[in-house]
Write a structure and sequence with these properties.
alpha/beta; six-stranded antiparallel sheet; 23% helix
Length: 341
């Protein structure tokens, strides 16, 4: 009996040690380890913070700005964004548009999208000063790189990741900005942007811009950034394929129907051309976890046992993509996938 008790104590201690080590590893900034020295498909996800909504202000027609306060907040650089967990549990991504040197607050802004999926409406109608919100991040897939010159093309709320870049550009840097929107009253931060441009670097267009003229003389060693509606980004990319884009909706691309086998459930599903793996899975397994439905938050990540994945997310590292996928946006590259579900 004493021998059995000794074995039990040793086994329990080993289990506790493994759990403690797992927590330390997952808290490390190097977790999960990327497949490449500089991962091209995402960055590690950080732990959540709870921040106070210190102020809520309408800064343009249909645009609300939130200042979220905390202490010793993780640092960020221009182009970074936060995952904002809304009161309903929805997760949405918003670019940081405040001061990177301010370690006591984060500032984000969002436009009300009438025909959207509900995130912006929840921010506008339910988030109030004095509330606490959970955030994850910051993460940066849209960093400001060193270049001989800069060209920025933004539409409406797309100014948010670019504004900190304009503030951070060194004195004497060569840059110009095309800022387009429906009308001036709906364009956030317009006065500050025009002041930064000194009257000559910023072109403000109400309506459809002339991209051919604006992008006609971009030098080979220049950097082009674009953020805004999908149509604007696609048009800029068509004219300048090396453009750096920031998007918070999955890239739309063609893909036919395919089958998904759920190995542990013993079910085989058909994913239609105009549907998603998540939708097909939830029709059979309604308790399947999900949140953003845009390939950013990682809630719906599932292990892939067989098949080649057409990854369309903006989160997973190369190592994670080797054996998993985000089923809200990614699809099969062939006719069949097998998931560990």
């Amino acid at each position: 009996m004493p021998k059995f008790r000794t074995v039990a104590v040793v086994a329990g201690a080993a289990l506790l040690a493994r759990r403690a080590m797992r927590r330390r590893i997952q808290a490390s900034p190097l977790w999960p380890m990327p497949a490449l020295e500089e991962p091209i498909s995402g960055l590690p996800r950080s732990r959540a913070l709870r921040l106070l909504v210190a102020s809520r202000e309408e800064i343009a027609d249909g645009v609300v700005q939130l200042r979220l306060e905390g202490r010793d907040l993780p640092r960020w650089e221009p182009g970074a964004h936060l995952d904002l967990v809304l009161p309903s549990g929805l997760v949405r991504q918003y670019s940081l548009c405040g001061d990177p040197e301010d370690s006591s607050s984060y500032t984000v802004a969002t436009r009300l999208v009438a025909g959207g999926r509900g995130g912006s409406r929840e921010v506008h109608e339910q988030v109030r000063e004095g509330m606490e919100l959970q955030v994850r991040g910051p993460r940066n897939r849209f960093p400001l790189v060193e270049a001989a010159s800069y060209v920025f093309v933004v539409g409406g709320i797309g100014i948010t990741p670019v504004l900190p870049m304009l503030r951070a550009l060194p004195d004497g840097a060569e840059w110009r900005l095309l800022y387009c929107g429906r009308e001036r009253a709906s364009m956030p931060f317009l006065e500050e942007v025009e002041k930064l441009g000194g009257g000559s670097r910023v072109a403000v267009v109400e309506g459809r811009p002339d991209l051919d003229a604006f992008l006609a003389d971009v030098p080979e060693d220049g950097a082009v950034y674009c953020c805004g509606p999908e149509g604007l980004m696609a048009a800029v990319e068509e004219r300048f394929p090396r453009v750096r884009l920031e998007r918070f909706t999955p890239r739309v691309s063609a893909g036919g129907a395919f089958e998904v086998e759920l190995r542990r459930s013993g079910r085989t599903l058909t994913v239609a051309e105009d549907s998603t793996v998540l939708a097909a899975v939830r029709a059979e397994l309604p308790d399947t976890a999900y949140s953003c439905e845009q390939g950013f938050c990682g809630t719906c990540q599932q292990r892939v046992l067989e098949g080649e994945v057409d990854h369309r997310d903006e989160l997973l590292t190369d190592a994670e993509r080797a054996d998993s996928m985000l089923i809200c946006v990614s699809r099969a590259r062939g006719d069949r996938l097998v998931l560990d579900m």
